[in-house]
Amino acid sequence: MRLRIFLEPQQGATYEDQFAVARAAEDLGFDALFRSDHYLAMGDHVSGLPGPTDAWITLAGLARDTSRIRLGTLMTAATFRHPGPLAISVAQVDRMSGGRVEFGFGAGWFEQEHAVYGIPFPDSGRERFDRYEEQLDIITGLWATPAGDTFRYEGRHYRLAEGPALPKPQQGPHPPVLIGGTGPRRTPRLAARFADEYNVPFSSLEETEAAFGRTADAVRASGRGAPMVYSAAQVLCAGRDEAEVAKRAARIGREVSELRRNGLAGSPDEIVDRIGRFGEAGAERMYLQVLDMSDLDQLELVASLVAPQLD
Protein backbone atom coordinates (compact mmCIF):
# COMPACT_ATOMS: atom_id res chain seq x y z
CA MET A 1 0.00 0.00 0.00
CA ARG A 2 1.50 3.31 -1.10
CA LEU A 3 0.44 6.49 0.70
CA ARG A 4 0.00 9.68 -1.27
CA ILE A 5 -0.80 13.19 -0.01
CA PHE A 6 -3.72 14.99 -1.63
CA LEU A 7 -4.30 18.75 -1.22
CA GLU A 8 -7.30 21.02 -1.86
CA PRO A 9 -5.58 24.40 -2.40
CA GLN A 10 -8.76 26.18 -3.53
CA GLN A 11 -9.77 26.15 0.13
CA GLY A 12 -7.03 28.72 0.80
CA ALA A 13 -3.33 28.19 0.10
CA THR A 14 -0.36 29.94 -1.47
CA TYR A 15 2.27 28.23 -3.57
CA GLU A 16 4.54 28.41 -0.53
CA ASP A 17 1.97 26.51 1.55
CA GLN A 18 1.81 23.76 -1.04
CA PHE A 19 5.56 23.60 -1.41
CA ALA A 20 5.98 23.22 2.35
CA VAL A 21 3.69 20.18 2.29
CA ALA A 22 5.42 18.77 -0.79
CA ARG A 23 8.85 19.15 0.80
CA ALA A 24 7.67 17.52 4.03
CA ALA A 25 5.97 14.69 2.12
CA GLU A 26 9.13 14.08 0.13
CA ASP A 27 11.37 14.14 3.22
CA LEU A 28 9.02 11.81 5.11
CA GLY A 29 8.95 9.19 2.37
CA PHE A 30 5.44 9.57 0.98
CA ASP A 31 5.01 8.27 -2.56
CA ALA A 32 3.38 11.29 -4.21
CA LEU A 33 1.80 14.70 -3.82
CA PHE A 34 -1.43 15.33 -5.72
CA ARG A 35 -3.66 18.37 -5.74
CA SER A 36 -7.18 19.19 -6.86
CA ASP A 37 -8.00 21.30 -9.91
CA HIS A 38 -10.52 23.88 -8.71
CA TYR A 39 -10.83 27.67 -8.84
CA LEU A 40 -13.39 28.26 -6.08
CA ALA A 41 -13.49 27.38 -2.39
CA MET A 42 -16.17 24.98 -1.21
CA GLY A 43 -18.11 25.19 2.05
CA ASP A 44 -18.95 28.01 4.46
CA HIS A 45 -16.11 27.38 6.94
CA VAL A 46 -13.32 28.70 4.67
CA SER A 47 -12.76 32.02 2.94
CA GLY A 48 -10.52 30.70 0.17
CA LEU A 49 -8.01 33.47 0.85
CA PRO A 50 -5.62 34.40 -0.69
CA GLY A 51 -7.36 32.89 -3.73
CA PRO A 52 -6.97 29.91 -6.05
CA THR A 53 -3.77 28.65 -7.63
CA ASP A 54 -3.69 26.94 -11.00
CA ALA A 55 -3.00 23.21 -10.78
CA TRP A 56 -0.51 22.87 -13.63
CA ILE A 57 1.34 26.11 -12.91
CA THR A 58 1.73 24.90 -9.32
CA LEU A 59 2.93 21.47 -10.42
CA ALA A 60 5.45 23.10 -12.76
CA GLY A 61 6.92 24.93 -9.76
CA LEU A 62 6.94 21.78 -7.65
CA ALA A 63 8.57 19.89 -10.50
CA ARG A 64 11.62 22.14 -10.08
CA ASP A 65 11.44 22.48 -6.29
CA THR A 66 11.29 18.75 -5.51
CA SER A 67 13.44 15.85 -6.63
CA ARG A 68 11.82 12.48 -5.85
CA ILE A 69 8.13 12.64 -5.08
CA ARG A 70 5.64 12.00 -7.87
CA LEU A 71 3.24 14.81 -8.77
CA GLY A 72 -0.28 14.83 -10.16
CA THR A 73 -3.90 15.95 -10.12
CA LEU A 74 -7.12 14.47 -8.77
CA MET A 75 -8.60 15.44 -11.16
CA THR A 76 -7.77 17.96 -13.90
CA ALA A 77 -11.10 19.24 -15.23
CA ALA A 78 -11.71 18.70 -18.93
CA THR A 79 -13.96 21.78 -18.97
CA PHE A 80 -11.11 24.12 -17.99
CA ARG A 81 -8.77 23.63 -20.95
CA HIS A 82 -8.56 22.75 -24.62
CA PRO A 83 -7.07 19.28 -25.12
CA GLY A 84 -4.16 20.29 -27.36
CA PRO A 85 -2.71 22.95 -25.04
CA LEU A 86 -3.36 20.70 -22.03
CA ALA A 87 -1.32 17.90 -23.64
CA ILE A 88 1.51 20.40 -24.11
CA SER A 89 1.33 21.61 -20.49
CA VAL A 90 1.36 18.13 -18.97
CA ALA A 91 4.17 16.96 -21.26
CA GLN A 92 6.24 20.02 -20.36
CA VAL A 93 5.75 19.56 -16.60
CA ASP A 94 6.64 15.88 -16.98
CA ARG A 95 9.94 16.91 -18.57
CA MET A 96 10.53 19.61 -15.96
CA SER A 97 10.10 16.98 -13.22
CA GLY A 98 12.35 14.39 -14.81
CA GLY A 99 9.40 12.09 -15.54
CA ARG A 100 7.47 12.25 -12.25
CA VAL A 101 4.04 13.44 -13.42
CA GLU A 102 0.76 11.51 -13.26
CA PHE A 103 -2.27 12.82 -15.13
CA GLY A 104 -5.55 12.54 -13.24
CA PHE A 105 -8.32 13.64 -15.58
CA GLY A 106 -12.06 14.10 -15.05
CA ALA A 107 -15.05 15.55 -16.87
CA GLY A 108 -15.51 18.60 -14.59
CA TRP A 109 -18.57 19.15 -12.41
CA PHE A 110 -18.55 22.30 -10.23
CA GLU A 111 -20.79 24.64 -12.21
CA GLN A 112 -20.41 27.65 -9.91
CA GLU A 113 -16.67 27.99 -10.41
CA HIS A 114 -17.21 28.03 -14.16
CA ALA A 115 -19.72 30.86 -13.84
CA VAL A 116 -17.45 32.86 -11.52
CA TYR A 117 -14.49 32.74 -13.91
CA GLY A 118 -16.35 32.82 -17.24
CA ILE A 119 -15.59 29.23 -18.21
CA PRO A 120 -18.18 27.61 -20.51
CA PHE A 121 -20.03 24.77 -18.81
CA PRO A 122 -22.00 22.38 -21.04
CA ASP A 123 -25.62 22.14 -19.97
CA SER A 124 -25.88 18.37 -19.88
CA GLY A 125 -23.79 15.77 -18.14
CA ARG A 126 -23.89 13.72 -21.33
CA GLU A 127 -22.22 16.50 -23.33
CA ARG A 128 -19.57 17.01 -20.64
CA PHE A 129 -18.79 13.31 -20.70
CA ASP A 130 -18.76 13.21 -24.51
CA ARG A 131 -16.27 16.07 -24.57
CA TYR A 132 -14.22 14.38 -21.86
CA GLU A 133 -14.00 11.16 -23.87
CA GLU A 134 -12.86 13.03 -26.97
CA GLN A 135 -10.25 14.88 -24.91
CA LEU A 136 -8.89 11.60 -23.56
CA ASP A 137 -8.63 10.31 -27.11
CA ILE A 138 -6.86 13.47 -28.29
CA ILE A 139 -4.40 13.88 -25.41
CA THR A 140 -3.27 10.27 -25.33
CA GLY A 141 -3.21 10.25 -29.14
CA LEU A 142 -0.96 13.31 -29.28
CA TRP A 143 1.45 11.78 -26.77
CA ALA A 144 1.49 8.38 -28.48
CA THR A 145 2.16 9.73 -31.99
CA PRO A 146 5.79 8.84 -32.87
CA ALA A 147 8.15 11.78 -33.26
CA GLY A 148 8.25 12.71 -36.93
CA ASP A 149 4.66 11.55 -37.55
CA THR A 150 1.58 13.76 -37.45
CA PHE A 151 -1.73 13.60 -35.59
CA ARG A 152 -5.18 14.49 -36.90
CA TYR A 153 -8.53 14.21 -35.15
CA GLU A 154 -12.12 14.56 -36.32
CA GLY A 155 -14.63 14.37 -33.49
CA ARG A 156 -18.03 15.80 -32.77
CA HIS A 157 -16.71 18.47 -30.40
CA TYR A 158 -13.00 18.77 -31.29
CA ARG A 159 -11.15 18.82 -34.58
CA LEU A 160 -7.38 18.96 -34.85
CA ALA A 161 -5.67 19.66 -38.15
CA GLU A 162 -2.71 17.48 -39.02
CA GLY A 163 0.20 18.55 -36.82
CA PRO A 164 3.49 17.42 -35.27
CA ALA A 165 2.00 16.29 -31.91
CA LEU A 166 4.80 17.85 -29.89
CA PRO A 167 6.26 18.04 -27.27
CA LYS A 168 6.52 14.49 -26.01
CA PRO A 169 6.45 13.74 -22.28
CA GLN A 170 9.59 12.30 -20.74
CA GLN A 171 7.73 9.15 -19.67
CA GLY A 172 6.93 6.85 -22.54
CA PRO A 173 4.49 6.41 -24.09
CA HIS A 174 2.98 8.98 -21.72
CA PRO A 175 2.55 9.83 -18.02
CA PRO A 176 0.23 7.45 -16.13
CA VAL A 177 -3.40 8.38 -16.70
CA LEU A 178 -5.82 8.27 -13.74
CA ILE A 179 -9.57 8.12 -14.16
CA GLY A 180 -11.88 8.25 -11.16
CA GLY A 181 -15.48 8.23 -10.03
CA THR A 182 -18.25 5.76 -9.36
CA GLY A 183 -20.26 5.97 -12.56
CA PRO A 184 -21.64 2.51 -13.32
CA ARG A 185 -21.14 2.30 -17.10
CA ARG A 186 -19.10 4.89 -18.99
CA THR A 187 -16.49 5.45 -16.29
CA PRO A 188 -15.43 1.77 -16.10
CA ARG A 189 -15.35 1.56 -19.89
CA LEU A 190 -13.19 4.66 -20.26
CA ALA A 191 -10.91 3.52 -17.45
CA ALA A 192 -10.41 0.17 -19.17
CA ARG A 193 -9.57 1.94 -22.43
CA PHE A 194 -7.42 4.85 -21.27
CA ALA A 195 -6.37 4.59 -17.62
CA ASP A 196 -3.34 3.18 -15.89
CA GLU A 197 -5.03 3.77 -12.51
CA TYR A 198 -8.65 3.83 -11.41
CA ASN A 199 -9.48 5.91 -8.33
CA VAL A 200 -12.59 5.94 -6.14
CA PRO A 201 -12.78 9.20 -4.14
CA PHE A 202 -14.50 9.69 -0.78
CA SER A 203 -16.76 6.66 -0.92
CA SER A 204 -17.62 3.98 1.60
CA LEU A 205 -15.68 0.75 1.69
CA GLU A 206 -18.66 -1.07 0.17
CA GLU A 207 -19.11 1.49 -2.62
CA THR A 208 -15.38 1.44 -3.34
CA GLU A 209 -15.25 -2.36 -3.61
CA ALA A 210 -18.27 -2.39 -5.92
CA ALA A 211 -16.73 0.29 -8.16
CA PHE A 212 -13.45 -1.64 -8.31
CA GLY A 213 -15.42 -4.70 -9.36
CA ARG A 214 -17.23 -2.89 -12.18
CA THR A 215 -13.96 -1.56 -13.54
CA ALA A 216 -12.24 -4.93 -13.24
CA ASP A 217 -15.11 -6.42 -15.26
CA ALA A 218 -14.68 -3.71 -17.91
CA VAL A 219 -10.92 -4.37 -18.04
CA ARG A 220 -11.52 -8.07 -18.62
CA ALA A 221 -14.20 -7.38 -21.23
CA SER A 222 -11.87 -5.01 -23.10
CA GLY A 223 -9.19 -7.67 -23.47
CA ARG A 224 -6.43 -5.27 -22.45
CA GLY A 225 -3.18 -6.85 -21.33
CA ALA A 226 -1.85 -4.03 -19.17
CA PRO A 227 -2.66 -4.28 -15.46
CA MET A 228 -4.87 -1.69 -13.75
CA VAL A 229 -3.86 -0.03 -10.49
CA TYR A 230 -6.77 0.53 -8.07
CA SER A 231 -6.76 3.34 -5.52
CA ALA A 232 -8.98 5.27 -3.13
CA ALA A 233 -9.01 8.78 -1.64
CA GLN A 234 -10.14 9.51 1.93
CA VAL A 235 -9.96 12.52 4.23
CA LEU A 236 -7.29 12.26 6.95
CA CYS A 237 -7.68 13.16 10.62
CA ALA A 238 -5.05 11.36 12.72
CA GLY A 239 -4.07 11.86 16.35
CA ARG A 240 -2.00 10.21 19.04
CA ASP A 241 -4.99 10.44 21.38
CA GLU A 242 -8.64 11.41 21.22
CA ALA A 243 -8.00 15.03 22.18
CA GLU A 244 -5.57 15.44 19.26
CA VAL A 245 -8.06 13.85 16.85
CA ALA A 246 -10.81 16.21 18.07
CA LYS A 247 -8.55 19.24 17.71
CA ARG A 248 -7.67 18.35 14.14
CA ALA A 249 -11.31 17.66 13.27
CA ALA A 250 -12.35 21.06 14.62
CA ARG A 251 -9.68 22.82 12.56
CA ILE A 252 -11.16 21.46 9.33
CA GLY A 253 -14.77 22.05 10.40
CA ARG A 254 -15.72 18.39 10.79
CA GLU A 255 -17.02 16.12 13.56
CA VAL A 256 -14.90 13.19 14.74
CA SER A 257 -17.79 10.73 14.57
CA GLU A 258 -18.55 11.75 10.99
CA LEU A 259 -14.88 11.49 10.00
CA ARG A 260 -14.68 7.99 11.46
CA ARG A 261 -17.61 6.98 9.25
CA ASN A 262 -16.47 8.78 6.12
CA GLY A 263 -12.69 8.94 6.27
CA LEU A 264 -9.47 7.90 7.94
CA ALA A 265 -9.85 9.24 11.47
CA GLY A 266 -8.57 8.24 14.87
CA SER A 267 -5.40 6.77 16.27
CA PRO A 268 -2.62 5.40 14.06
CA ASP A 269 -3.81 1.86 14.75
CA GLU A 270 -7.39 2.76 13.77
CA ILE A 271 -6.16 4.29 10.52
CA VAL A 272 -3.96 1.29 9.75
CA ASP A 273 -6.97 -0.98 10.22
CA ARG A 274 -9.15 1.20 8.00
CA ILE A 275 -6.55 1.41 5.23
CA GLY A 276 -6.07 -2.35 5.51
CA ARG A 277 -9.75 -2.86 4.76
CA PHE A 278 -9.45 -0.78 1.62
CA GLY A 279 -6.43 -2.89 0.72
CA GLU A 280 -8.49 -6.05 1.13
CA ALA A 281 -11.05 -4.51 -1.24
CA GLY A 282 -8.32 -4.10 -3.87
CA ALA A 283 -6.77 -0.66 -3.26
CA GLU A 284 -3.03 -0.48 -3.85
CA ARG A 285 -2.68 3.25 -3.20
CA MET A 286 -4.40 5.53 -0.70
CA TYR A 287 -4.67 9.27 -1.25
CA LEU A 288 -4.76 11.06 2.11
CA GLN A 289 -6.76 14.28 1.78
CA VAL A 290 -4.96 16.82 3.98
CA LEU A 291 -7.22 19.82 4.54
CA ASP A 292 -5.03 21.71 7.03
CA MET A 293 -1.79 22.40 5.17
CA SER A 294 -0.23 24.13 8.16
CA ASP A 295 -0.33 20.90 10.17
CA LEU A 296 2.87 19.20 9.06
CA ASP A 297 3.00 17.32 12.38
CA GLN A 298 0.10 15.16 11.12
CA LEU A 299 2.22 14.08 8.15
CA GLU A 300 5.06 13.14 10.48
CA LEU A 301 2.64 11.15 12.65
CA VAL A 302 1.39 9.15 9.66
CA ALA A 303 4.89 8.63 8.30
CA SER A 304 6.24 7.36 11.63
CA LEU A 305 3.32 5.37 13.07
CA VAL A 306 1.02 4.44 10.15
CA ALA A 307 3.21 3.87 7.10
CA PRO A 308 5.59 1.36 8.73
CA GLN A 309 2.64 -0.89 9.61
CA LEU A 310 1.53 -1.01 5.96
CA ASP A 311 4.79 -2.36 4.51
UniProtKB/TrEMBL annotation:
Matching Gene3D superfamilies: Luciferase-like domain
One Pfam family per UniProt: Bac_luciferase
The entry's keywords: Flavoprotein, FMN, Monooxygenase, Oxidoreductase
Luciferase-like domain: residues covered: 8-250
SUPFAM superfamilies: Bacterial luciferase-like
Start-end of Pro residues biased regions: 166-176
Region of interest called Disordered, as start-end residue ranges on this chain: 163-182
Transmembrane segments: none
Protein name in the entry: F420-dependent oxidoreductase-like protein
Top-level taxonomy: Bacteria, Bacillati, Actinomycetota, Actinomycetes, Streptosporangiales
